[in-house]
């Protein structure tokens, strides 16, 4: 765990060191790369997230999804004590949760397994699709059903990151759920199941 904490601190510092211009260019480039894929079709159910200031700005992705007729769901913390999260339609209002993250102000929610794609924030990733998050485990718990499957059928898990967040290796812990794909300003990397 100490190594993960140290790595998280180093990667967050690298991400924080990017200029506003580099951040804007990365988020625009990532949306452009996603626009070339067949992921955003009318009616597709996609989990996106409202970004914190240090994360990749998802506003261009959300705008692209809306233009394409995608049904968007945002993460919503249901229980801080149990680290339980579901997804909810954005609705007319957002509220800020305990972590300062905007989330839908609604009681409506859907479990992650009903979505076709989930775009995840991350602090770091490696070439095997291992993801290092902020450490609370909300996404890993919401997506834990993936560990029980022997064959993949969704949702596809897509990490969004700056290329400086790539590291040689992240040693996974048993609760970690790996990514299927990651998109950075430099391109798209698929870790498994390219034809899904």
Can you walk me through this structure?
Strands 3-2-1-6-9-10-11 form a 7-stranded mixed sheet. The protein has a two-stranded antiparallel sheet with strand order 4-5. The longest helix is centred in the first third of the chain and has 16 residues. The radius of gyration is 16 Å and the shape is globular. It contains 4 helices and 11 strands, in the order H-H-E-H-E-E-E-E-E-E-E-H-E-E-E. The mean pLDDT is 89. It has one domain: Rossmann fold. A hairpin with a 2-residue loop joins strand 10 and strand 11. The chain is α/β, with parallel strands linked by helices and 196 residues long. Helix 2 runs parallel beside helix 3.
Topology:
Layout lengths: L1 H15 L3 H16 L9 E3 L11 H9 L3 E9 L4 E5 L5 E3 L5 E3 L12 E4 L3 E2 L5 E2 L5 H5 L13 E5 L20 E4 L2 E4 L6
Parallel strand pairs: 1-2, 1-6, 6-9, 9-10
Antiparallel strand pairs: 2-3, 4-5, 7-8, 10-11
Helix pairs in contact: 2-3
């Amino acid at each position: 765990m100490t190594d993960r904490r140290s790595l998280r601190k180093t990667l967050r510092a690298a991400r924080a060191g990017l200029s506003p211009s580099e951040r804007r260019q990365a988020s625009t480039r990532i949306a452009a790369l996603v626009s070339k894929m067949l992921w955003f079709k009318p009616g597709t159910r996609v989990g996106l997230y409202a970004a914190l200031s240090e994360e990749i700005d998802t506003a261009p992705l959300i705008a692209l999804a809306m233009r394409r007729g995608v049904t968007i769901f945002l993460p919503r913390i249901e229980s801080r004590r149990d680290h339980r999260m579901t997804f909810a339609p954005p609705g007319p209002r957002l509220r800020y949760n305990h972590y300062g993250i905007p989330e839908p102000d609604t009681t409506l929610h859907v479990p992650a397994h009903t979505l076709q794609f989930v775009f995840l924030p991350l602090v770091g990733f490696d070439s095997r699709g291992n993801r290092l998050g902020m450490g609370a485990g909300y996404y890993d718990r919401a997506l834990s059903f993936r560990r029980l499957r022997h064959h993949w059928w969704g949702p596809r898990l897509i990490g969004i990151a700056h290329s400086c967040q790539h590291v040689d290796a992240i040693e996974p812990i048993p609760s970690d759920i790996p990514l299927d794909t990651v998109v950075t300003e430099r391109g798209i990397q698929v870790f498994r199941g390219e034809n899904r």
